[in-house]
Amino acid sequence: MSVKALLIFVVAAFLVSLLFVLLGLLLSHRRAKRTKILTFECGQKPFEWRTSQFPIQYFPYLIIYVVYAVVAILILVSLFYVFEVPDALMRVTIFLAILTFSSIFVSINLRRLVQKI
Of 63, 88, 65, 67, whose CA–CA distance to 78 is shortest? Predict the structure, then answer.
């Protein structure tokens, strides 16, 4: 019974999303207006010398921040796991060592990253 309900849900979700995509294509403007293309910076008019909407040179730092946020959550969860199961300390230590060495590897190779706009 639950497999049938899951299948109905997946089909309904697909059909509804397809319906919204088709409605967006039918009801949208064919040409983008000038105000749609302009950049928007915190409620102020953008600087005229701005060439791109997103400063791409900061993108690797954004990725690093997201990765470290996930790592912090994983460390917190693993600490709770170690407190409940004391025998798991070796597994958690190996996990944290892998995370440490991979972050050192990424930070060394980040300088060699070629950024293209």
Answer: 88
| pTM recorded for the entire structure | 0.39
Which burial class, exposed, middle or buried, applies to 105 when counting CB atoms under 10 A from its CB (0-12, 13-18, 19+)?
exposed
Q: Provide the pLDDT for residue 113.
A: 64
d(Cα 75, Cα 84) in Å, to the nearest integer?
14
Domain boundaries, the chain: 51-117
What CA–CA distances, in Å, run from 3 to 9, 17, 41, 55, 95?
10, 21, 47, 47, 36
Handedness of CA 84, 89, 93, 95 (dihedral sign): negative
